[in-house]
Amino acid sequence: MKMLVTPILCACLAAFAPAGTAAAQPDGHQDSDGRPRRQAGPPLSVREIERRVVPRLPGAQYLGFDYDPATEVYTLKFLRNGSVIWVDVDGRTGAIVRKTGD
């Protein structure tokens, strides 16, 4: 009887091991920071982003943009009084996420 206890105990522990590791894996419905992933269509076009953001920096010369598809963030570059201004914009909402320089 004692010879059966160890194999049965090992089998029970092995049966629960995959469930524990599966629970630790990301479920594909959250970003790396734990926020729910957006379930929307493609990001806004650069023309739409420019239409929303460029007027918010009066007196600044718009130089161009960069787009990071991994984060869906547009970075717009402006020049005002010899200073470079970088504006990060959420590609889904068009909201300004960060602005550096002045």
Structural summary, described in words:
- The protein has 102 residues and is of the alpha+beta class.
- The chain has one domain (2-100): Nuclear Transport Factor 2, Chain: A (Roll), CATH 3.10.450.
- Helices cover 30% and strands 28% of the residues.
- The chain has two helices and four strands; from the N terminus they run H-H-E-E-E-E.
- It has a four-stranded antiparallel sheet, covered by helices on one side.
- A hairpin with a 2-residue loop joins strand 2 and strand 3.
- The longest helix has 23 residues, at 2-24.
- Keywords: Signal.
CATH architecture: Roll
CATH class: Alpha Beta
> What Rg is obtained from the alpha carbons, in whole angstroms?
25 Å
How is the main sheet built? Answer: 4 strands, antiparallel
Proportion of residues in β-strands: 25-35%
Global mean pLDDT: 80
Q: Per CATH, what is the topology?
A: Nuclear Transport Factor 2, Chain: A
Distance between the termini: 79 Å
Low-confidence runs of at least 5 consecutive residues? 20-25
Q: Using the alpha-carbon principal axes, give the shape.
A: elongated
Summarize the structure.
Residues 22-45 are annotated as: Disordered. The protein has 102 residues and is of the alpha+beta class.
